[in-house]
Amino acid sequence: MPPLDLLSTFLEIYRAGSLSAAAQRLGVTQPAVTGQLARLEEKLGEPLFVRTPKGATPTQRAAVLASRVGVHVDGLREALSPDDAEPPLKGTVRVGGAAEVMTLRVLPVLAELTARGVTVHVTHGLADDLLSQLADGRLDLVVSAVRPTRQGLLAEPLVDEEFVLVAPPALAHTVDAARLRAEPVAALAHLPLVAYAEELPVVRRYWRSEFGRRPPNPVALLVPDLRSVLAAVVAGAGVSVLPRYVAAPALAAGEVVQLHHPEVAPLNTLYLAVRRGAPAGPAVTVLRDRLQQAARRWSTL
């Protein structure tokens, strides 16, 4: 395993998007950062970044390494810090994400920053729109349900969402268990769907992943908020596919049941996205670290 200082420097380059920005954040010279990166690349036997006029573009090996060691290095740095007192912060952080994950998971972490003097502006929306705002400089950090492909953005895996097919008990009783195992699409075809959007993005993905085709079911209700989708399912409007963290309270209360139990849970990775090479202020850096720490407690959502 490479030394902690080399991995720490690597992460700063990965997150900052350039060697000069990483040196500034670390409080060292750029030649020192260059030397540590060279040592790490020598130990690994392959390059981690491609140098360009705009900064340092991570290779696929770098992306994998960052996802594997990021939270561990952050935890070690915090544990080894000689000063446990958290200094005050200032400034404004602009954060974007889907309304559901922001409300149920991210806002409690943001509250920690407001208590330290940071002003937080939250924007809800779809991943593509939020990533466009991030690239344009209108947001500082995005919790994204899709991996960014724009060249000017950097992303780290945050946590996996697990999806579950849920139904109100009355509708669940209309499904023949034996037929569900043998012919799931046909066994479920009579059930009305409650969906997030007309394209059935979450439901369609589940059907294709688990059953190999689009759902032929009638659509009963469209509502652009997964918490409202759950409320409609609880009320008996139909069945739907939801992240487990959204459905968990209703599942625990018996208001809905999990209709299908796949051998391997269908997952979707959420990412923390920032602009490559953007000067990350202390508040953005602290927020990123706090979200990574919180995600370890969340495990799979």
UniProtKB/TrEMBL annotation:
It holds the Pfam family LysR_substrate. Keywords: DNA-binding, Transcription, Transcription regulation. PROSITE patterns: HTH_LYSR. One of its GO terms (molecular function) is DNA-binding transcription factor activity. InterPro entries: LysR_HTH_N, LysR_subst-bd, WH-like_DNA-bd_sf, WH_DNA-bd_sf. Residues 2-59 form the HTH lysR-type domain. Belongs to the LysR transcriptional regulatory family. This is LysR family transcriptional regulator. It comes from Streptomyces chromofuscus.
